[in-house]
Amino acid sequence: MGLLQKILIPVLGLVLAFCFYSSRENFKPEMLKGKRVIVTGASTGIGEQMAYHLARMGAHVLVTARTEAKLQQVVERCRALGASSARLVSGSMEDMATTRQLVEVAEAELGGLDMLILNHVGKSYFNYFDGDVGHVQKLLDINFLSYVAMTVSALPMLKRSGGSIVVVSSMAGKVGFPFTVPYSATKFALDGFFSSLRQEFSIQSVNVSITLCILGFIDTENAMRAAADVLLMSPAPKEECALEIIKGGTLRQREVYYRYASTKLPLLLRDWAAELLDLLGRQGGPFLGWGRRAAGPAGAAAVPTRAAAGGLKDATAGPTAASAGRSRACSPSPSVSFNNRLAPERSRLGSPAELRIPAGAPFLLGSSRPGWSPSPKPGESSN
Q1: Which residues lie within the region annotated Disordered (predicted)?
Q2: Which helix (H) or strand (E) is 229 found in, with range?
Q3: Full set of structural domains in the chain with CATH
Q4: 11 vs 291 pLDDT, higher one
Q5: Angle at 57 between CA 56 and CA 60, to 5 degrees
Q6: How far apart are alpha carbons 369 and 383 in whole angstroms?
Q7: Closest by alpha carbon to 33, among 47, 63, 54, 62?
Q8: Residue 167 forms beta bridges with which residues?
Q9: Which residues make beta-bridge pairs with 381?
Q10: Which range has highest mean pLDDT (161-165, 235-239, 324-328)?
Q11: Do 373 and 382 touch, CB atoms closer than 8 A?
């Protein structure tokens, strides 16, 4: 009977969720015409695509990221696509002055704000947590505290317009997986802060919606470069993902899951079979979307990849020039050996004699910017 309940209750929940969301107001692009929208992390990937969708819908678009040259290209294309206006503010979200400047520009040049889309993320490593509190603090500044600062600064304008806050997060903020401790901590913080703030808004009758977006494996440039040959699952298109985020925010939905099956099902396991989900998270496997791709020529062994201690990117970037010809015909190994580079961490943290990490693991988590820095202690925002 207990097992039957564990099966029927999640299924019933899915049915009720489908009925609830299918009965909501239909999205129409004209809902965004003339709306004033800030998009952070907008120089590449999902943020860039959101800016283009908003431009096609006739919104006033204000974009931000670190790289001004890339932002200028995004702004020019937004204008060509029909944006009511397009502006940029370049700067790192590690600097809280950037958050204030964004809001000041929106107030002075747009006359207010209707939607705040928080999409930026700092670089992190994919590895055992090595006890570096400084890296956790830096990542919290970019991935969490800057979101809070932007929200606080923009809230008076959003209250006046009855606007929306859209927070782009990932599975790492809903389920704990290994090798992403600092990153996951920041995403859990986002979930806790904005879910609690939503409740306070409801109690106080504040007419500002909060939409939390839980993303899976998306075909951003960084993700495809790092994991296309490792993951078994097919990536979702960033253009479609960006549109779903905009739809969810416009319709004032509580949460957006994209793609739904690859993000919502693990959460059902978390609630009803947590130990099984932990096991899958440690071991990897087809259910979670990583593993060995189809083998190359008959008899060819998979070529193991090697990563720097700092992150996944080196692990999946491919062979060196000397071995490129030999290994091009073979699929990458589904795991990464860190024996040499992690010797100090193994002795300090008591990790196994040989660490083998499912190389596709972080992309199950669905970061909005799923490229991971090759440096163990990155010092700047990735977008």
Answers
A1: 311-383
A2: none
A3: 13-268 (3.40.50.720), 296-364 (no CATH)
A4: 11
A5: 95
A6: 8
A7: 54
A8: 118, 212
A9: 122
A10: 161-165
A11: yes
Residue 204's beta-bridge partner residues?
none
In the predicted structure, residue 166 carries a pLDDT above the cut 70: yes
Q: What global pTM score does this model have?
A: 0.71
Q: Is the pLDDT of residue 268 over 80?
A: no
- Whole-angstrom Cα distance, residue 258 to residue 208? 23
**236 φ, ψ to 5°?**
-85, 145
Tokens of 179: 């090798």
Mean pLDDT, rounded, of the chain:
74
Which residues, other chains included, contact 15 with Cβ-Cβ below 8 Å and sequence gap of 6+?
Answer: none
The tokens for 228 are 């296309």
Q: Provide the residue type at 207 as one letter.
A: N
Distance of alpha carbon 377 from the chain centroid: 19
- Alpha-carbon distances, residue 320 vs 8, 221, 227, 306, 326 (angstroms): 51, 20, 17, 10, 10
Task: Supply the DSSP string of 60-96, one letter for each residue.
Answer: EEEEEES-HHHHHHHHHHHHHHT-SEEEEEE--TTSH
Q: d(Cα 277, Cα 56) in Å, to the nearest integer?
A: 41
Contacts of 240 (CB under 8 A, 6+ apart): none
Give the pLDDT confidence score for residue 341 in this predicted structure: 36
Find out whether the peptide bond into 259 is cis, omega within 30 degrees of 0.
Answer: yes
Contact (Cβ atoms closer than 8 angstroms) between residue 206 and residue 198: no
Any idea what DSSP says for residue 61?
E
Neighbour-count burial of 72, counting CB atoms closer than 10 A to its CB (0-12 exposed, 13-18 middle, 19+ buried)? middle
CA 79 → CA 48, 84, 106, 108, 143, distances in Å? 13, 8, 17, 20, 29
- Amino acid 188 reads F
Burial tier of 313 (Cβ tally within 10 Å: 0-12, 13-18, 19+): buried
- List phi, psi (to 5°) of 55: -65, -45
**Which is catalytic among the residues 52, 125, 147, 183?**
183
d(CA 224, CA 166): 25
Q: What is the dihedral of CA 69, 75, 76, 78, to 10 degrees?
A: 150
Joined tokens for residue 182: 């600092």
